[in-house]
Amino acid sequence: MSQNPPLLRPDLAPRPIFDSAREKGGRRDGQPTIGMVSLGCPKALVDSERILTRLRAEGYAISPDYKGAGAVIVNTCGFLDSAKAESLQAIGEALSENGKVIVTGCLGAEPEYITGAHPSVLAVTGPQQYEQVLDAVHSAVPPSPDPFVDLLPASGVKLTPRHYSYLKISEGCNHACKFCIIPDMRGRLVSRPAHAVIREAEKLVEAGVRELLVISQDTSAYGLDRKFATERGHRAHITDLARDLGSLGAWVRLHYVYPYPHVRDLIPLMAAHSESGGLVLPYLDIPFQHAHPDTLKRMARPAAAAKTLDEIAAWRAACPDITLRSTFIVGYPGETEAEFQTLLDWLDEAQLDRVGCFQYENVKGARANDLPDHVPDPVKQERWDRFMEKAQAISEAKLAAKVGRRIEVIVDAVDADGATCRTKADAPEIDGNLFIDEGFEALSPGDIVTVTVDEAGEYDLWGRLG
Prior knowledge:
Elements: E1 33-38, H1 42-57, E2 61-63, E3 71-76, H2 81-97, E4 101-105, H3 111-117, E5 123-124, H4 130-140, E6 164-168, E7 170-171, H5 182-186, E8 190-191, H6 194-206, E9 211-215, E10 230-231, E11 234-235, H7 238-246, E12 251-254, H8 267-270, E13 283-285, H9 293-299, H10 305-318, E14 323-330, H11 337-350, E15 354-359, H12 377-400, E16 406-414, E17 419-423, E18 434-436, E19 448-456, E20 461-465
Parallel strand pairs: 1-2, 1-3, 3-4, 4-5, 6-9, 9-12, 13-14, 14-15, 18-20
Antiparallel strand pairs: 7-8, 10-11, 16-17, 16-19, 17-18, 19-20
Helix pairs in contact: 11-12
């Protein structure tokens, strides 16, 4: 069974999974059909699910391939130049295979960039422009609803497996990091009402979802724009929201948690020994980006790496089992060898459990493009290699310490070779797996079982039931 090392790009989402069984009997005669290619981060994946849910409600079927679709929607990413190139490639492939293509998503904020490369696309819309996407679909493939046949699942259309789901709690971001154009594409922070988030989560859990992955651009800032108001019995604050979500009985995993001081209030919800512990998985995904104060200052991010180490120590003291994940940028403009060595030394001290890293790239419209002293590509690659070598060694040592322990895992997939599972320390697609090679035949995706860890690798574990 192959290993699954973590993806090292923060802008990649899980590959969409289309389950024809969800279509309740397949496509009816004359039913219009739409395909979807979803690129970018999990937040974009949620946008894709919302678009498809609206289309299913209007009577459209969802095609798992190009040729079975009347048109294809490509939800693009515009985070990095390499992601833009990937989006253009996906658009070209869809045009070649199908011919009718509607483009949406972050790259849609630059329509001339898309139409310059692919002038035959039917329409280009930006992120969150659901109504414009629907209008374009209606023009390309007119709806033909049958209210007596077309049924929409209570949880809507999902592009992830049945047992876990992304739960987007806000849009936009109030930060002004020089390397990022997300606020330009998606705007400033707009939080969803807490009662709406809880209601969506309740529906997902009722439909069989066992794990809720909380996402946004800045999860820690949730509710700030709403002045942390309480509506219908739920307060729009991340601590309150996490507590409310944790009461639903599913695993709750927090992503994109900016290290504000109030993050420490989340830790008791994770610590098994505390009064309210166990409501939220002991897992924090925090975008540190770098550790040297001068580099962080050039990034326009808070430059308090030493205080961050103190916070990490306090989190671990309160919750010894906490898993910390982060992403970093190497080769940022002006990064010296001394600054990079500071990052390596910080990583040695922080001992983060899960680490992703990407080499700096210019992005059209980002202020970092105009900074002096850009790092040559060979130096970026060399630093990336050194960084990942250290991160891998830390991961290997931490996983080796789990051999012999009994831990809970959630089953993601079962095939003839075994069961692919994840521990509470592993988010889908971006972290490692735990594999069960024997006695797995009765397991099904979504099962939560206890295993004993027998073996550890660089990123993955192997274990047995019991």
